[in-house]
Amino acid sequence: MVNVQSGAQKESAKLDFDAIIIGAGFSGMYMLHSLRDKLALKVTVFEAGNNVGGTWYWNRYPGARCDSDSYIYCYTFDNHLLQEWNWSERYPEQDEILRYLEHCAERFHLKRDIQFAKRVVEVTFDEATDLWMVRTDKGDAVRANYVITAVGSLSATNVPPFKGLGSFRGKSYHTAQWPHDGVDFTTKRVAVIGTGATAVQAIPEIAQQAKHLTVFQRTPNFCVPARNGRVDPGVAKARKSDYDGVRERIKKSFFGFELNFIPKSVLDTTPEEREQEFDRMWDAGGFALWLANYQDLFFSKEANDIIADYLKCKIRSTVHDPVVAEKLIPKTYPYGTKRQPLDTNYFETFNKKNVLLVDASTDGPIEEITPNGIRAGGKEYPVDIIVIATGFDAMTGPLNNLGIKGRGGRELAQDWRDGPQTYLGLAVAGFPNLFTITGPQSPSVLSNMPVSIEQHVEWITDCIAYMRRNKRTTIEATAQAQDAWVAHVAEVANGTLMTGTDSWYMGANIAGKPRRFLPYLCPEGVGGYRKKCAEIAEKGYEGFVFANVA
Ligand SMILES: Cc1cc2nc3c(=O)[nH]c(=O)nc-3n(C[C@H](O)[C@H](O)[C@H](O)COP(=O)(O)OP(=O)(O)OC[C@H]3O[C@@H](n4cnc5c(N)ncnc54)[C@H](O)[C@@H]3O)c2cc1C
Known about the structure:
5-stranded parallel sheet
């Protein structure tokens, strides 16, 4: 049943755009194409950076590349685009992905509707007119019916408040704010703070250049080999001729990859059988060990321990110094409950003479940044360059930073002070006509993101088309539907091992951030989530309320 309220008489106000999109990465670019070219809406995009690309515009650190296989880390909505673009490697580097997104921008004539170097600082819903007012740091103030956030899940950089950072006399760089002309590490003593997925990519590259590298580790990571390289031309050709099949499979899959769990408990296997499977996945590289392992990996500590032990042995057999190896072995959380880093010679790098590991638990945590370096565990490590690889205020950070105010002036950041509250990760009660692409409580970062991005963009496009066809002025999630969704997301997460780990999925990397599982681990995977969203739309947008043209 469609819940429609007849709209109260609204004041008329000048409408600058039908829709405003915030962000010009994978999400914002496709959203613009979709609304402008399919629905013929008047749309503008505000983007803080000077170009398209989002993640791939900002993250230019050495070794930056995707961890999803290139043939699926791309748009799949256009068959010609799929056929004409050729990736050079299994996991292309940042500059190649950026070139791809530039190509898309050109192909679909996107830039003429993107306003670069403009950061949105305030987004306010005016109940008198049912319009959103969007303001930027450059003084723009424009009105639109719909606001779509395409601000990314990993775009608000996190620099922990290190004491003394400002006193450092050398250079320091966050990996997501990397200088466009690169950084020369030769002859330099370098520190990398952090050992997450970014650092795991950067450390081997920096170690090759730098005179000396000191790695400051808070929590060790289970890394698995990427096995990057050129893709066999026969394989690439076969994929191109079967893109319809690829598209269907990734859409219906668990995580947006052509990977599926082994439908069996690891506890029901013999040591030989599982060793063989683990070796197969290890040799294949990529996310297989994480996302296509035995089905109880994320649910049973006993099962998880078996897989974790396999990976611990790999670390011990790679790192020559047993003391260093022990520091690099995760011991405090189950495998797979943090973002899986893919590595190329990461553990091997700690065998190099010019590389030193400083581990927070055994050597002491970072106490302060000094003019000459970093002090940890009472000892000063002199360095010339500090690379801050401490990640992001994930998922909620970019949205909280937008200054969103909904009905009655209620502030999104305030509503979310105890954790995000959304319906489907797509909409928020009290914030009509606001859509959040890959918002918290959607599969987002637990998937190959282009798959989730395309699904959200297409759902939002269909929803807006429906509203215009049916003369609905606003759509808004109901508080009841939202509460049920929030409870469902938490319930599913609580049934896994994920919530016991201090990860950025839980907001644990940011001091003071509430501990909530931020993405949605749909029990039926991204395919199941897609189906659920589609069914809600088919039922006339169940859980939403519309207002009609008065
Ligand atoms: C180093 C790294 C590697 C990754 N590798 C993978 C991978 O292998 N596979 C995968 O699936 N995902 C990966 N991701 C996740 C990646 O973010 C997504 O795949 C994808 O790029 C997200 O696209 P997006 O457009 O939603 O967001 P983004 O690419 O983050 O773009 C958001 C844009 O919004 C802009 N913006 C934010 N706030 C404002 C504001 N207030 N005003 C104006 N503009 C604003 C930002 O400047 C940015 O350009 C990776 C992320 C990182 C950081």
